[in-house]
Amino acid sequence: MTSFTNKNVLNLLRNLPRLSISNLRNNDGAVKKNKRGRAQHGGDKHGHGNKGSKARQNFMRPGYETGNTPFYMKFPREQYYKDHHVKRQYPPLSLATLQQMIDMNRIDVTKPIDLSVLCNTGLYNIKPEDKHFGVNLIDEGADNFKAKINIEVQWTSESTIAAIERNGGVITTSFFDVNSLFILINPKKFFQRGEAIPRRMIPPEDAILYYSSAANRGYLADPEKISWERFVLAQKYGYKLPKIEDDPDYDMLISRKDQRQIFYGLEPGWVVNLKDKVILKPTDPQLQEFYRS
Fold first, then answer.
1. Could you tell me if residue 78 is inside a domain?
2. What is the reported pTM?
3. Of 133, 50, 139, whose CA–CA distance to 87 is shortest?
4. For the chain, how many structural domains are there in total?
5. Rounded to an integer, what distance in angstroms lies between the CA atom of residue 57 and that of residue 288?
6. Is residue 74 part of a domain?
7. Would 215 be classed as within a structural domain?
8. What is the pLDDT of residues 218-255, one digit of tens each?
9. The organism sits in which domain of life (predicted)?
C-alpha cells in the first residue's frame, strides 16, 4: 500500500480542481426542470393574450379572466340546492286528478283512502329510493272537487284541507318512514315474504311539529283541537261546515290509523298468509307488548 508523503499530498492538491461555483451541482434528480408554459412567454396569459386570441381566433369563454380568479367566484353565493339530495320529497297529486280517479271508479270512496290505494290506481306512484316520503295533495281543481272522502296524505295545504272538509270529508296528514313506505306502496310483495308487519316509526325531529299540529290535521294532534280548527277554517273560507256526526258514513269518516299502524285493519305484528288466506297473530305477551309500544 502506497504511503502518501507531504510531497505527494501537495502534488495531489495541485492537480485536483478547486471548489468553486463553476463546479458545484446537485445530485441527480434533485432538481426538476420546469416545463414550458402553455403560452409564448411561459404561460402568463394562457394563450389568450394580444396575439393568441386575436391572431388565432381562440376566443375566451364568458367569465374567463386569463387564469385569474373569476369575478363571480370572488363573492359568496346563496346555495339554493344545498343538501337537496337528502331532503324529503313529496310528489304532488292534484284534487282534479283525485276527482278523475274517483269518477273512473279507480277509488272506492266508501272506504278510507291512503297511499296504498292511490298507488294501486296505477295513476300515481312514488319512489322511496329517490327520497319520496309520500303524497302532497295540492289544491289544483279545488273548485270542481265534489267527493266526500276520508283521505290520508303526507303533506298538504290549507286550501286543500278546506276543499275536502267543505264537502263533508276528512283529511289527515301522516308520516311514514322509508321501510313503511316500501311496504305500503306494494303490500302484495311484502305479504309474499311471510314477515310480520312492523311498527311505523315516529316522525323525525324536524317533522314532529308539522304532524302534531291540528291546523295541518296531523295524526299526532289532539282530536278536540282538530274539531276546533275545522270550525275556524270554515269561518275563514266562508262555507258551512257539515256535521259528520249526522252523516250516514260516520264510521268511515272517523276511521283513522294508530300511530304505529301501517295498514287499515291490520295491526303491527300480524302475518298475512296469502296462500292460505289467513292472518296469524302473535300470542306471546312480550311480542304483543312490543308491537303495541
1. no
2. 0.71
3. 133
4. 1
5. 79
6. no
7. yes
8. 999 999 999 999 999 999 999 999 999 899 999 999 99
9. Eukaryota
